[in-house]
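User: Continuing from earlier, I have the next pair ready.

Assistant: Great, send them over.

User: Here they are, in order.

Assistant: Folding the first of the pair now:
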Amino acid sequence: MSDTIVLQSHTQPLPATWIQTCLDSVRKWAHSNQYDYKFYDDELFKFIDDELLKKFTRQPIIATDLARLKLLQHYLQNNYSTVIWCDADFLIFSPNKFSLTSHKYALGREVWIQHKSRSEKTLISKIKLHNAFMMFRQNNSFLDFYTETAEHLLMLNTGTIPPQFIGPKLLTALHNIAQCPIAEHAGMLSPLVIEDICQQGGIALDLFKQKSKQPIYAANLCSSLYYQGEISTEQIEMCIALLQDSKSNIFKY
């Protein structure tokens, strides 16, 4: 048994084969580092309060965001000194370079490239945090506070809330005050950046690199927008193949 565990979850069966590729990349990375690994399907939801689960039945992303925090707490309380969460659509494409920081905890970096508006195609970047990758060690000062705050806000809520409410939105708000440690190499790719990767270059990819503090070695591939039709299966699969190609220089800058 290792003192570190990597945790992932997704409803079964998987809706796309490329998600299995992402899961495999994380599992192989965990095993290569001799970390324990555990995958959950809908069992994940047993870690949150029945009242909250019922309240957000129609918004499973909200329930999942809270359940992962409870899951991480559970394993920190049960003999693990370090716990790691990776979303099912999180791809570790440079496993030899993707390593944990020395901080007590670390959160992923979101550099989101999009058009300024539907009518104005000027590109803009939005710099945030994301919860597709999170790492917490024993005696960290953040996980319990973050979990309690998220749960409290959900209990208070009486209406529909944005999908990212206790994920990137809350994390970014807390970071703006507390300046949380960031795993800069754990990124997130917007559809425009994925399109440019498929073309092996472009202004969205250039802007992503310009706004990123360092090269990324892993990234969330934004399955939510894939399900909405903003990225095709062919684009995602080509993006993965290019990122995993050892000869690729996409993020060598």
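And the other member of the pair:
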Amino acid sequence: MADDMSGFSKKPKLTSDEFYLSPEGYMVFTERYHLKRGYCCKNGCKHCPYGYDKKTDSFKK
């Protein structure tokens, strides 16, 4: 039985409207990227479309 791990090494391609680089050089994901991903990571992302508030650990409506 052969182990085919080829599917795990492929990274999805990011388009220019899914992120930008901050002046400090950090990659910042846009709302479009978060919606494409499909869930909230609860990290308090700058462009979170899900309304997550890291300070209160809750979602705004």
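Worth noting for the second one:
The helical segments are 31-37. Residues 18-59 form one domain.
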